[in-house]
Each structure stands twice: as C-alpha cells, then as structure tokens.
Design brief:
ten-stranded antiparallel sheet, about 30% strand, 20 strands, single chain, about 475 residues, Rossmann fold, alpha+beta, Lipocalin, eight-stranded mixed sheet
C-alpha cells in the first residue's frame, strides 16, 4: 500500500459482479451506439486503454460494460447510458467514473472527458471491430491428461463452505497433493491477476508431473461462501487448513504427502497452518514474507516508487508519512479516534501543495483511512512471520524473484532462513531467481506496470524447480 499520490501500487484485485441493465435509447441513436468503443486516458504519463461495449438485447434496449485490458478488468457494469441529441453520457457507479462527450457520426467517435473523483482528462472513444487482446500462451488448453473435479469443503472454525477444483493425475494410485493459497485481495481459484491465471498454470504443470492440486476460491469469491471483507489472515489460514483436512478424506490422495503452496500473503498462511497441523508434510513459499507486515509495506512503497520514477525527496516524505500513519494504527484501536489523528497528519503533510494537489490528496484521504483501519490491515501490520516459521518443522522451499518490488527478495529470504534455523529445521531450501518479479515473470524492472504487458505467466524455470523439489521431498 502507498500513502502518496505520485506512485501507483496494486494491492488487491477488485472483485467485479456483473449485473445487466437496460435503458431506453432514442431510435436514431441506436445504430450509432451499438458495438465496441475504444479510447485512451492518460494517467501519470502512461496511456491506459478503456473499452466500452454496448450490446443490444432487444429493440430500443441496451446493456453496456467497460473493460480495462491493461488492468485485467472486464465486464464492469455501466450503470447509466444517456443519449441526448448529439451528446452521450456514460456512468460507471462502481468506479465513481463517467465519460461525457459529443458524438461524431462522421468520425464514428465520441469526443469528451473522462472523470473519476476530481481527476479528469480528455478521451476520444472510437468505434472499432478489433478490441485489444491479451496473449497468455501458458494458459492451459485441453485435452488434459488428468482428472478435473469440482469440489466443496467446509471450514468448521468459521462455519463456511468453500469451492474449488481438484486436479489428480490419471491412474489408480495415491498421489502427493498441494493446496494452493492465494495472495492478498479477493482471489478466485486461479489467482487470476491482470489476465494471468497463475494457479491454473501451476496446477496444470504439477498434475502433468504426478502431483495432485487443490485450488479454491477465496471466501466470498466465486462459488465460495463467507464474507471476505470481514476476514483477517488468521481466518484465511483456517480456510487453507480446511482444504488440508478435506484432502485427508480422499482415496486418491496419499495423506502422508500433503503440502501447501502459498503465494505472497499465501506464503504467510502456509507456515501458520504447518506450525499447528502436523498433517502438512511440506510447504512452498512463493514470495512469502519473512519481514513483519509493517516492514514489508514500508519497503514495498519505496521500491515501487523508485521503479515508477518518483523523486527521492518525494519518496522520503511519503515514507515519513507512512510511518506516522502506521504508528497511529498500531497505537489507537478505536477507528474513529485513529481516523481523526490521521486526518491531522494528512492535513499537515499537504499544506504546501497546490490547490489542485490538495483537492486530490483530500479526496484520497478517506479511502486511505478506510483501508488502514480495516480489520485485515490492522492484523497484517502487526503480523510477524517469526512467530510461525520458528515453529515450522516440515520441509520448506522458499522462493523469490530478485526483482520483486512487493516482497524484497534478499531481506525476506534471509529472515526466513534465520527463523527456520531457530526452529532447528534441517530440511529447507532457499532459492532466489534472477530477473523475476513478484508474479515470478521474467521482467525488465519488476515495476507493477509491467505485469499485464508480460505474456509469460510464470517462469518455466520456477515451475520445474518446484516440481523437482516436491517430488524429491515426497519420494
């Protein structure tokens, strides 16, 4: 998370629920509006393509959606579409955004302005038959040489039901298995991020090499029940443990060879489960934190800002502000009192900004305060992996990319190794991969803005290394 406005961070992926709507349009505008509209907005010197899709359901009735291809966001509901003479207004309530402009029949274009909060910029939407496509060559395609089963299992601690997919190698034997645990933010069973289905690619690869895989929707996501927004990392660990318990009941699974692969926050959860449940035979930490939550956030903010070209002076100022905010959150348990203190800190930090910059900062303040006072954030801020890694005695594989800006490789891998030594764990492997980012993609800088542009979902070297290590552990 970043508490400054000149660098952009991706902490969570928005879970979008698509609900159709219909609205009546003037007859003479129907033909003009039907189809796909493509345009760019410019944000922090970067062009971001937006797509508006208008689809006819029946005469004089329409349904419309917005896509943001570079952000991997699709089917965002357009809540209002108004056509008046030669003008068009498109509103997207879930984003607090709108596009308004003049329609040019001659140019097949809508020339206007994109607005979101106090941010606004020009945009020209042009009608097109060719939409931006995202190439993901590693996404699995049939036929699949393994069994695929939709499963449901219960978390008895929190009394919720979770839904997932189990892939088991074909044959009559019992197989080793891994449970996939996702990173922060509401994730589906594929841990789908910016068009990349990381967990689906891993599951396909491992199941083709004799390892069963269970991946599941986070609580409150997809077909899983429960409320994601009310949960902490501790709650998510009970979900993962429920998956382990479920696997013990299956005849196709070797119950002495059950492991967990956790990515990012999932790499926090895996040791939590393994330290208290001896059923877990091994864990794989993919960019799993070794530092405390607060240390991760502070370091992450600096690295991301540097990659985005933010000046050192601005970074230092933002880091000082972040520390002040986190100190308040840690000290003051009452959200109302904490919010009041944070507003004073924010107000002091922006007093020298221009009028326009102050408006932007003030507009972000409430959002930031809501985030840092959430139940999940409060828990994460104080989380210390040491509490669990020092009690983890199963086999451990800790992986990280050298260009990871969200979980810095050297600091975290060193801390993980230190804590495993304190646990007197003799069966662990630490591995840093050069030129890989937080998603384990081969990259140039590791900047978050690269994620969607890289076609590779995960480095084949990482897939092979994980597979070989798991097969060696369960041999």
């Amino acid at each position: 998370m970043q508490l400054f406005n000149k660098a952009k961070a991706i902490i969570a992926i928005i879970f979008l629920i698509v609900i159709n709507f219909t609205t009546s349009l003037a007859q003479n505008n129907e033909q003009f509006m039907m189809g796909n509209w493509l345009g760019d907005i410019e944000f922090q010197g970067r062009k971001l393509p937006l797509v508006i899709r208008v689809i006819s359901i029946e005469k004089d009735s329409f349904v419309a959606f917005m896509d943001s291809p570079d952000q991997g966001a699709k089917d965002i509901k357009v809540t209002k579409l108004l056509l008046r003479n030669d003008s068009a207004i498109i509103r997207i309530k879930s984003l607090g955004a709108s596009i308004s402009g003049l329609m040019s029949v001659k140019d097949s274009a809508i020339i206007g302005v994109f607005r979101q909060s106090i941010f606004n910029c020009p945009i020209t939407l042009k009608k097109t038959d060719k939409l931006p496509s995202i190439n993901r060559p590693q996404e699995p395609k049939p036929p699949f040489p393994y069994q695929i089963t939709e499963v449901m299992f219960g978390n008895e601690v929190d009394n919720i039901e979770l839904s997932g997919t189990l892939t088991v190698p074909s044959g009559n034997g019992k197989y080793p298995v891994v449970v996939m645990v996702s990173g922060s933010g509401p994730q589906n069973r594929d841990e789908e991020i910016l068009g990349h289905k990381l967990f689906w690619v891993i599951a396909d690869y491992l199941s083709r090499h004799g390892i069963a895989v269970l991946r599941y929707d986070d609580r409150g996501v997809g077909k899983s029940k429960g409320n994601f927004n009310e949960a902490t990392t501790l709650n998510f660990s009970y979900d993962a443990e429920a998956a382990v318990t479920y696997l013990k009941t299956l005849p196709t699974i070797d119950t002495n060879k059950i492991g967990i692969i956790g990515h990012s926050e999932g790499g926090m959860i895996a040791p939590m489960v393994a330290s208290r449940n001896k059923t877990v035979n091994f864990i794989v930490l993919m960019a799993g934190p070794g530092l405390t939550g607060e240390e991760i956030l502070l370091r992450q903010s600096i690295l991301i800002a540097q990659a985005e070209g933010v000046k050192e002076k601005e970074i230092n100022k933002a880091n000082k502000l972040n520390k002040a905010i986190y100190e308040i959150v840690n000290r003051e348990p009452d959200n109302t009192k904490a919010a009041s203190e944070m507003r004073k800190v924010y107000k002091k930090s922006i007093k020298r900004l221009s009028k326009e910059e102050k408006q932007l900062a003030e507009g972000q303040t409430n959002v930031m305060i809501q985030q840092v006072t959430s139940t999940w954030f409060r828990y994460f801020l104080k989380f210390n992996p040491k509490d669990y890694l020092t009690k983890t005695h199963c086999a451990v594989l800790a992986l990280n990319g050298a260009k990871d800006l969200q979980v810095p490789a050297d600091e975290d891998l060193n801390a993980i190794e230190e804590y495993l030594k304190l646990a007197q764990n003799k069966n662990y492997t630490i591995k840093k991969f050069e030129n890989l980012n937080h998603l384990f993609q081969t990259c140039q800088t590791g900047a978050l803005s690269e994620y969607s542009k890289i076609e590779e979902t995960i480095s084949p070297e990482v897939l092979s290394f994980m597979k070989d290590w798991i097969l060696k552990v369960v041999k």
